[in-house]
Specification:
Rossmann fold; seven-stranded mixed sheet; 34% strand
């Protein structure tokens, strides 16, 4: 990544206090998404951080992970697999319930999304407590996928998510707070 690029991306992320709940400082990435140059540099940086040049599937988590995952998949010549909130996928699924930083949720993936032995990269916008990523990693494991690593645009390190998912494989984040 060119000198100063990471700092420019970081400075473009907007802090929104008390969203979605009081006491939470939300990192708003929409200004980065709105800038095609910064978005492309972000995707490049997320891929470079992993060192991965080839993978069969990229899994993106509902909803902003779809943006990053699909773009990374396209760059790597891989298939894209969505992990969605319960009840949103139209075919047979496997699912899991999990805890997140301010509640609980459930995610699902199509049963045929990943074939046993396929190499997989997990991509999402944010690593916080590790609940959502951990759930997605569990689904990948259940499918028989071979996880090569996880890549995140932002990591909130003070919430300890990396420690919760590190046993699954290498964890990379472009920007850490």
């Amino acid at each position: 990544m060119a000198p100063g690029t990471l700092e420019l991306i970081r400075s473009t992320i907007r802090d929104v206090p008390d969203f979605p709940n009081p006491g939470i400082l939300f990192k708003d990435i929409t200004p980065v998404l709105a800038n095609p140059t910064l978005l492309a540099q972000t995707i490049d940086g997320m891929i470079e951080a992993t060192g991965i040049t080839q993978v069969d599937k990229v899994v993106g988590i509902d909803a902003r992970g779809f943006i990053f995952g699909a773009l990374i998949a396209e760059r790597l010549g891989a298939g894209f697999i969505p992990v969605r909130k319960k009840g949103k996928l139209p075919w047979q699924t496997r699912g899991i319930d999990y805890a997140l930083e301010y509640g609980t949720n459930s995610v699902e993936m199509h049963l045929d999304a990943i074939a046993s032995g396929e190499t997989v990269l997990l991509a999402d916008d944010l690593l916080a407590t590790g609940g959502t990523a951990g759930a997605a990693l569990h689904l990948i494991e259940q499918a028989g996928g071979k996880l090569l690593g996880s890549t995140f645009f932002i990591e909130l390190s003070f919430l300890g998510g990396r420690e919760k998912i590190a046993a699954s494989g290498p964890v990379h984040a472009l920007i850490t707070y």
